[in-house]
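Practice problem: predict the structure.
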Amino acid sequence: MMAANARRYMIHFGSAMLLYMATLFGSVFLLSTAEFGPALRGLIAILPVLPGLGALWAVMVFYRSLDEFKQRILAEAMIIAALLTGFGTFAYGFLEGALDLPAIPMIWVFPVMIGLWGLVGCFQKYVVYR
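Answer:
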């Protein structure tokens, strides 16, 4: 049975992600079908960040509801993910210039870090803290 804090997290995070997807598709649609001035284009382009902040809030509330050991595991996983992302982008930056590799848009940095957070967390759970 799922703990109450985990159930609450799934509802809050899932709602934020549904709103994010709707806002993202809506903003992409608006930007591709209508003409706006630069200020309004910027505002429409950044609208999906707002529900993303709701997801961030859900993660923080869930994190605070965990015991100290689980908080430590999640914090360590995030630190490792941030370091791997940072050093990976740093190394790619050197290779990009030396090998004439294509530039990777900044929009991919955060998803990579979150993905690494999940992978590192799984590694910790099933290998390190067995």
